[in-house]
Amino acid sequence: MIQSFDFSALSDYSDVVRHGVYITLLLITVGAALGLAVSILCVWARLFCPAWVRIAVTSYVEFVRNTPFLIQLFFIFFGLPQLGVSMSEMTAAIVAMAINLGAYGTEIVRAGVQATAKGQWEAATSLGMTRNQAFWRVVLMPALQKMWPTLSSQIVIVMMGSAVVSQIAVQDLTFAANFIQSRTFRAFEIYFVVTAIYIVLAALVRLALRLIGRWVLATGEVP
Amino acid sequence: MSLVKIEGLCKSFGGLEVLRDISLDVERGEVIALIGKSGSGKSTFLRCINGLEQMNSGTIHVDAEPVEADERKLQKLRLKVGMIFQQFNLFPHLTALDNTALALRVVKNMSAAEARAVGLARLEKVGLGHRADSRPHQLSGGQQQRVAIARALAMDPVVLLCDEVTSALDPELVEEVLQVIRRLAEEGMTVIMVTHEMSFARSVCSRVVFMHEGRLHEMGHPEEVFGNPKTPELRQFLGQTASAATAE
Amino acid sequence: MTDFTLQQIIYALVLGARWTVLLSLSAFILGGILGLVLMLGTISQRKWVKLPALGFIWLVQATPLLMQLFLIFFGPALFGKDVPAWMAACIALTLWSSAYLAEIWRGSVLAVQKGQTEAALSLAMLRGQALRYVVLPQAVRMALPPTAGFMVQIVKSTALASIVGFTELMKTGNILSNVTLDPFVVYGLVAIVYFCLCYPLSLVSRKMETVFDVTR
Question: Which range marks the domain in which residue B63 is found?
Answer without folding.
Answer: 4-80+158-247
